[in-house]
Write a structure and sequence with these properties.
The chain contains 25 helices and eleven strands. By secondary structure, it is of the alpha+beta class. The protein has three domains: 112 residues, Butyryl-Coa Dehydrogenase, subunit A, domain 1, CATH 1.10.540; 141 residues, Beta Barrel (Butyryl-CoA Dehydrogenase, subunit A, domain 2); 311 residues, Butyryl-CoA Dehydrogenase, subunit A, domain 3 (Up-down Bundle). The strands form three sheets. Strands 1, 2, 3, 5, 6 and 9 form a six-stranded mixed sheet that branches. It has a three-stranded antiparallel sheet with strand order 4-8-7, with no helix packed on it. A two-stranded antiparallel ribbon has the order 10-11. β2 and β3 form a beta hairpin. α5 crosses α8, α13 crosses α19 and α18 crosses α20. The protein is globular.
């Protein structure tokens, strides 16, 4: 149909509606000369005509899984308690006290006891954590400090005597605690920590000391106001009878009481200061700790991987400092798993608000015609539809990560431990970085209304921003992924076994590194481009090429620059490799989730999102594929065209997709994400 035509047939309202929408979009978004046919318009016509039906309830049930009930219980509790709801404007002091009351209410009134799930059922623990974080991210972090970090360190690094002594107090919040690892001068480099724990064989105690200002424990959650205990990471030093006088056994974890249980005053030798107002997360009381000859019993050493006898001898089942250190950090990987999982929860909130606003908000249109929804604009679709697809992709990827982590906690399989360590590092880095960028994009997509604090983007963005830094700086974590890939690459050529997530490298080094097939490089049919095999092969081809090329560069530069200099010379290449690998894992898990979906309509809807995620990523890195002739020019154009078409199709059922996340109004709380009548509440906020 030509743009100048109209349809007035009242007997076919659906056709008339579709045609009017096409006219508006064609005139406003892609103006065309009269009597000319537009391929873009043909695409839009097809997309509108072929709107998929989605069973939202079935899709939501598949997404939410078996822990939906406990999340609903959390939402109901906070919705029924206005006194525990975080207001838009609140001082730091008030926010800290509110966060504590929220946590106490959750545990003591709502009877949500998450501590036992940290080890017994991590998937349930992370589901609780996601729900709690959606109420208030500060609450989610305080919750995580108490149970995952402080509590998790006792469970995972301690032994039975520690669990027997501290479990109930941690569980019921009598023993509020801290995780004191980071120091003023050392964050990512944990092996460089300077706090010292010297054993005194005369008194059978450890003496905890902060040797200089750089060793002050910094940014310690719960320390400034509420914490009573801290897991302190310090260098374990033993006296010896040789010329050195002491022996440094490396970084270990110690339980250190920091406040009197009755008076709540700092204990002798412990100096506590407040880190003050932050960019975000001001409901969490971050503090700084200095220790001056603080004595603790020998039993306060968390001794799962290393112990000290009464006469001062060191014992361990692990032979070296490096192995003990790796085992210690391996047990703390749950924090990264939790952050990746929580980051997806925050992304869901932002995407729901932005997409729902974009569906409701109308702006501009053809002359003498009603204004159109801003989500009908190609530019808005380009911002939000791939992001919506990515949100679903991350949901399934982090769900897989939680499953592997749960399996690791049950089996303690050494190969699985290494796989989860690298996968959690990669997903935490990739997902939190994507979410941080997306929060700004969502704010911009909502225009001036997105800038109002009540519509949440500012708080979400500021509170989430630090996710890119704590539990491992994202750039450092990606280097760990790259290092593990290189190790797998080396092991492959030495005949070693590959860990589970890396299995595709077994065939990829031969299949993917051969010259691209000139025939398939030109295939451009929709069936081919939407074939999961083509999509996954493309992702893995890129990863394999990057891995091979960076390995060759490192080998070359090591000869002249040494290993450290060569690594630094190739650093950006290594980061790109790590991101490419993580994207391959994300796509593989998304494809699996689509194939495993039992409901036909939900499966078709998820397939649409999966195709959009895959082709959008391929298009964004099309230069890589074109440089090696993996994709011919005609195929590149077809990918771009199909990506736009899929965005149109996703736009048509975007409401169903965000409804499937099934987050209640109280969690969203943004007036612009409600139906139009909710704007009356919005105007009341400014006095109308």
């Amino acid at each position: 149909m030509e743009p100048s035509q109209t349809v007035e047939d009242e007997s076919q309202p659906s056709i008339a509606t579709v045609t009017r929408r096409i006219q508006r979009l064609s005139l406003h978004l892609i103006p065309l000369p009269p009597l000319q046919c537009s391929p873009q318009l043909d695409m839009l016509t097809c997309a509108k005509a072929n709107k998929q039906e989605v069973d939202v309830a079935s899709l939501s049930s598949y997404m939410r899984g078996k822990h939906r009930e406990i999340q609903e219980k959390i939402f109901y509790f906070f919705n029924s308690r206005p006194d525990l709801q975080t207001p838009t404007e609140i001082s730091m002091k008030e926010h800290r006290e509110l966060c504590l009351r929220q946590l106490l209410g959750l545990v003591r009134e709502a009877k949500i006891k998450p501590f036992r799930y940290v080890v017994e059922d991590p998937a349930k623990y992370f589901a609780i954590s996601e729900a709690v974080g959606s109420i208030d991210i500060s609450l989610g972090i305080k919750f995580g400090v108490q149970y995952s970090l402080w509590g998790g360190s006792v469970l995972n690094l301690g032994t039975k005597k520690h669990r027997d002594k501290y479990f109930d107090g941690i569980d019921n919040l009598e023993y509020l605690g801290c995780f004191a690892m980071t120091e003023l001068h050392h964050g990512s480099n944990v092996q460089g920590l300077q706090t010292v724990a010297t054993f005194d064989p005369i008194t059978d105690e450890f003496i905890i000391d902060t040797p200089n200002d750089g060793a002050i424990k910094w940014w310690i959650g719960n320390a400034a106001v509420h914490g009573k205990f801290a897991t302190v990471f310090a260098r374990l030093v033993l006296p010896t009878h040789d010329s050195k006088g002491v022996s440094d056994m490396g970084v270990h974890a110690f339980i250190v009481p920091i406040r009197d249980l009755k008076t709540h005053q700092p204990l002798p030798g412990i100096e506590i200061n407040d880190c003050g107002h932050k960019i975000g997360l001001n409901g969490v009381d971050n503090g700084a700790l200095r220790f001056c000859s603080v004595r603790i019993p020998r039993d306060n050493l968390l001794n799962r991987f290393g112990d000290v006898t009464r006469d001062g001898k060191y014992t361990s089942s692990l032979p070296t400092i490096n192995k003990r250190f790796a085992a210690t950090l391996g047990e703390l990987v749950g924090g990264r798993v939790g952050l990746a999982h929580s980051s997806v929860g925050i992304l869901k909130i932002a995407v729901i608000i932005a997409v729902r606003y974009s569906l409701l908000r109308q702006q501009f249109g053809p002359p003498k015609q009603p204004e159109v929804s801003i989500l009908d604009y190609q530019s808005q679709q380009h911002k939000l539809m791939p992001m919506l697809a990515s949100t679903y992709a991350f949901h399934f990827a982090t769900q897989y990560l939680v499953e592997k982590y749960s399996e690791m906690k049950k089996t303690h399989d050494e190969q699985l431990v290494g796989d989860v360590h690298a996968l959690s590092a990669g997903l935490k880095s990739y997902v939190t970085s994507f979410t941080a960028k997306s929060l700004s994009t969502c704010r911009e997509a909502c225009g001036g209304h997105g800038y109002a604090a009540v519509n949440r983007f500012g708080t979400l963005r500021n509170d989430h921003d630090i996710f890119q830094t704590f539990e491992g700086d994202n750039t450092v974590l990606l280097q760990q992924v790259a290092a593990d890939l290189l190790k797998q690459y080396k092991d492959k050529f030495q005949g070693g076994a590959l860990s589970v997530t890396w299995n595709y490298l077994r065939e990829s080094m031969n299949t993917y590194l051969s010259q691209p097939n000139p025939v398939t490089a030109r295939w451009e049919s929709e069936d081919h481009l939407r074939d999961p095999k083509f999509q996954l092969d493309a992702f893995r081809y890129r990863t394999s090429r990057l891995l091979q090329s960076v390995a060759a560069r490192l080998q070359k530069h090591t000869k002249t620059l040494g290993s450290f200099g060569a690594w630094n010379r190739c650093l950006n290449h290594l980061l790109t490799l790590a991101e490419s690998h993580i994207e391959s894992v994300i796509l593989a898990k998304f494809i699996e989730a689509v194939q495993n979906c039992p409901d036909a309509s939900s499966q078709a809807a998820l397939k649409l999102l999966c195709d959009l995620y895959a082709l959008d990523r391929i298009w964004k890195d099309i230069g890589t594929y074109r440089n090696v002739d993996y994709v011919a020019p005609n195929k590149a154009k077809a990918i771009n065209k199909l990506t736009q078409y899929l965005s149109f199709q996703v736009r048509n059922i975007a409401g169903e997709f965000i409804d499937a996340f099934d987050l209640p109004p109280y969690v969203l709380r943004a007036p612009i994400a409600m139906q139009s009548e909710a704007y009356s509440q919005y105007t009341q906020l400014v006095g109308f």
